[in-house]
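Lecture 7 notes: from sequence to structure.
We start with the chain below.
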Amino acid sequence: MPTTSRNRAGRRVAVVGISLSDCGRVDEATPYTLHAQAARRALADSGLDRSVIDGLASAGLGTLAPAEVAEYLGLRPRWVDSTTVGGATWEVMAAHAADAIAAGHTNAVLLVYGSTARADIRAGRRTSNLSFGARGPLQFEVPYGHTLIAKYAMAARRHMHAYGTTLEQLAEVAVRARANAAHNPEAMFREPITVEEVLDGPMIADPFTKLHCCIRSDGGCAVLLAAEEYVPDTAKAPVWVLGTGEHVSHTTMSEWEDFTVSPAAVSGRLAFERAGVRPEDVDLAEIYDAFTYMTLVTLEDLGFCAKGEGGPFVQEKGRLPVNTDGGGLSACHPGMRGLFLLVEAVRQLRGEAPGLQVRRADGSLPQLAVASGTGGWFCSSGTVVLGRD
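Predicted structure tokens for the same chain:
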């Protein structure tokens, strides 16, 4: 772990506060309400006064995000970030915030998100997204009906063709996620499922049946990052940001060189190198799982197994705890889920997981965790390595 420095150009950065807002089925709230809930709870979790927050990272809400969110929360940040790269947004924002804190540009940054995606559809305020639009590079794909899920499905089929990955192996990802969710009282779906039930479900986009796909929920969460000098005043032991990485690989499918390699292959390598650790040192992984194939290929690209061996890897029990809260496949998925990965990773390292708590072989709490978010259709990736003293 990096040595503590009092140099403003190289301060250590810690996660000092985390929280979820109300999640799952939340019919009587606005996205702003969920932002505020999560922010207040994360601040309370940190034990710090709101006056320490001088940075805000927010995306996905309002015309001028994060300005509207800052106003709603009563904050006047002097450092802001509204980077939007889909599900990887929050890991990328965490990387930016950690760099800014380390350099002395800001002292404490609040990352906050909230969405009523499920409630909005039920109330007729929005419809499902079949396409991200038909402008720019996307105009060359939209005429062929190539929806978001179809892009992931095509990549999965390529992996199956190249490496012999099976439908049963992909289904196992959903089964394991649900098994983890069964332990989590906050998870939206907790009833066990079998490989056969996944395979027999209604087809959404070949090879993905319904249970290969993430759920749609409401919810929000927040993470507070702060410079090391604030740690003595926090309510709980810090979880340190050890290393981060980010990468954007493509937006047009024809420009993606290899459908079996995600941008996590770059962001993960950078994060581990900067943290000074190896994948085999990590105790648990929180991975963006809008679809089962995302989990499998990200495990490969982060280095937990060799390329093409993700299928057998996800079938082996006990190899590596993954998506311990149930993930987007079972726990919650209100949109850009990447911030939830950071919350769960911190909970695990603190020993505060509401459900399945990971322990090392000697019974001690985990020391290292990785959170890796994926955005778009494998267009972007952000990876964060976290550790505790």
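Points to note: The chain has a mean pLDDT of 94. Residues 176 and 326 are 8 Å apart (CA to CA).
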